[in-house]
Amino acid sequence: MAGNGCSSLFGLLSVMALSGIMCVEVPKLKLNNGKLMPAIALGTYLGFDQGGVVKSVNKQLANVVMNAIDIGYRHFDTAAIYETEEEVGEGIRKKIEEGAITRDDVFVTTKLWNTQHKREQVPLALKQSLNKMGLNYVDLYLMHWPIGLNDDYTFSDVDFMETWRGLEDVQKTGLAKSIGVSNFNLDQLRRLIKEASIKPVAIQVEVHPQMIQSEIIEYAKSESMVVMGYSPFGSLVMRYGMQFPGPKIDEPILVEIARKYNKTTPQVVLRWQVDRNVVPLPKSTNLKRLKENIDIFDFKLEQYEIEKINQFHNNVRYTLPSFWQNHPYYPFEKIDNPQDNPFLNKRKQ
Could you confirm whether 137 is annotated as catalytic? Predict the structure, then answer.
């Protein structure tokens, strides 16, 4: 009989032990509407290259999701623009069919894309996502960016508060159990909370040792909101096929902390997020790293260790869509030489 955690896999434990699969009980955070969110999520964005969004091949992602469920993951983060919703849903549904979990055991987050920001478009967009996933509801629906775009990717003048009314609509109808935002800056978040009828439960932003997001985290805590952190490893991993400046896996400060707790430096960085009340969203398709990334709930960093890691902060963003920087709701700092818009380039091909 399925339960709500690793206990739901009790009948499989001997098989799992033989195959080297462990199952971690992940703690849950209480949201401001009383619902519970698992304290770590599997990120499912596969990247963006010259051909557009990178897609899963031969059901690789669906298999990763199923492996992740066996290991103990109960929170999956996707988005309409990632083009991974279908396989995320497939992996979850297969595990439900096996009896390993129930739908209530898993927490699914997806996101509204920028081209569907009009209030009346929001429920249609979410229904499309649900159809792809084969699910009746999502646990959390996020506005991916405060930036509205037209179908041709030119700037739309839709106010993000109109979009928020659409998110409130889908929560009221039960298509989403909770709603929130992603990539909002502090001023935008303050305005949203002031004008919203339903308060967001979460904000998802980039968080890693070079972008520690202290102001957003502090403000979110004061409003009983959860912060979800994407790109949690920062410069520890390669990005866009390159190494970037910043702390690496062999960074002495991180190595010292890792040795103390008999952990790896990536595990230390994930625990640093958890200890700062951030839900990290690590990505991996590798079974060994999937196990490593979730095995972070049996130790806790000291405050001075958290502060040591905080000192790597230098305001570096790895997600900086400067091609949108002239949009009135662009949330980040402008730069002198913005990138070409890859969405426009793709449309011209």
Answer: no
From 45, 73, 82, 329, active-site residue: 82
148 with 158: CB under 8 angstroms?
A: yes
Closest to 123 in 3D by CA, of 154, 165, 89, 86: 165
pLDDT by residue (tens digit) across 93-107? 999 999 999 999 999
This prediction's pTM: 0.92
Contact between residue 138 and residue 110 where contact means Cβ atoms under 8 Å apart: yes
The owner of tokens 């009828």 is: 197
- Per-residue pLDDT tens for 38-80? 999 999 976 655 555 666 666 788 999 999 999 999 999 999 9
Helix (H, G, I), strand (E, B) or coil at 83: coil
Q: Which residues are annotated as a binding site for substrate?
A: 144
Beta-strand ranges (E) seen in the chain are: 28-30, 36-38, 42-43, 48-49, 52-53, 75-77, 107-112, 140-143, 179-182, 202-206, 226-230, 278-280
- Residue 338 amino acid letter: P
pLDDT at 241: 78
Q: What is the pLDDT, as a whole number, of residue 341?
A: 86
Q: Name the packing angle between helices 186-195 and 214-222 (round to 10°).
A: 20
d(CA 220, CA 31): 11
